[in-house]
Amino acid sequence: MGNHDLDRSLGLYPTMMISMGAMIGSGIFVLPALGYKKAGPAVVLAYVLAALVVLPAALSKAEMATAMPESGGTYLYIDRALGPLFGTIAGIGAWFSLVFKSSFALVGLGAYLLLFAPLSQGAVVYVALALGALVVALNISGTKMSGQIQAVIVTVVVAGLLAYVVNAGVVVDTARYTPFATNGNGGIVTAAAFVFVSYAGVTKIASVAEEVKDPGTNLPRAMLGSMAVMTVLYIGVVGAIVGLSDPEVLKTGGPGGTASLTPMADGAGALFGGVGVALISVIAVVALTSMANAGVLSSSRFPLAMSRDDLLPPTLRTIDERFKTPRNAVLLTGVVLLLLIAFVPVIELAKLASAFQILVFSFENMALVAFRVADMPAYDPEFTAPGYPYVQVFGFVAGLALLTQMGTFPILGALGIIVGSALVYFAYGRPRTDRTGALGAIVRARRGEEDDGVAPTKQD
């Protein structure tokens, strides 16, 4: 096949909607109550803090995406910057995290589904499995179709969220904002670590860069535009949730006295009357399905890119001749997604995915530094991230600081992913590649050798 096996079918609007769709999910419909439990009404500031920590990685990734507009995103940039060992760890870890987030979204929608549908708790799992299968089928049948459906869904959901915020401005109880920071500054930082994953979608679209029209222009605009819109939307929605809901319901309204799993629905009756809870619940189900679709669309490109580089078996680089999608990579992602929904308590383990996302975002900043220092001819981005290197150093340090707030289990889980991914590299990838990346180019330059350190991506 030619140099671009995948179809460049995504314009600016659907690309931006994929990014926003990946963020309009648990970050709005599930996590605000968990953040409230840790920070009180100051959870609004936690979302702002998380956005500030994500921004350097978004800027860095926007630059790297215009230099390498190929499938793979996080994996591709860290691999080309730091070498295939770090690339394998980033690729498998980011893939795992995104699949886990998608399964978490589909299972999490069950809590909202039960608010308006006459289903048993056991039936919710089957609904989630059916929606998961539908998402996989959409992703196999074509990126353009998946992107178009995503654009329609996200547009409708954003309209619903704006109506929620505007109406809340009339009926909120201002007394619920005091005391504001119930657990001090430490509570805000801890809450920021847990809601950080809300913004992870802003960089997911880089993994489908090979399917974006005019990537040098559309990728930076989609990333930074979607992040700006979502930051404002998060502040408005979370502020509305705090002002509408009973504090005790937010903190203890979930299973077994845990934080509520349906914070947007908790105060919806005050907005829209008797139909309020059902209306918000329907929007939540649609939005969480959209988030799962965006997750499968982007995460399936990690095994595709790694297979092209001989770090995973060659069958994963197969492109469907009819639909121009990475069929086997999507199927692998879909199988893991459905297994997680059926057998794994994903809600309990969602923190693990968040911890690894924070780690990956931190190292994406260092990947940009490696590219800039190496100054390789092959690295020629159309967009240049501002504030280098201070912005990248801040993003790296701030990310690691947030990671310390996640607790022991998520950190150990992230370390487990690192070890497992490293074993995959040494057992399969190392004998098949001799690439060293920009970091290796820096070392060779200091030795007086010449090598751009970057191997071309294989297109079979």
Automatic annotation (TrEMBL):
It comes from the Archaea. Keywords: Cell membrane, Membrane, Transmembrane, Transmembrane helix. GO terms for cellular component: plasma membrane. Pfam families: AA_permease_2 (PF13520). It is a multi-pass membrane protein. The chain crosses the membrane at residues 12-34, 40-60, 81-100, 112-140, 152-172, 184-202, 223-244, 270-297, 329-347, 409-428. Its main location: membrane. The keyword Ion transport does not apply. It is found in: Cell membrane. This is Amino acid permease.
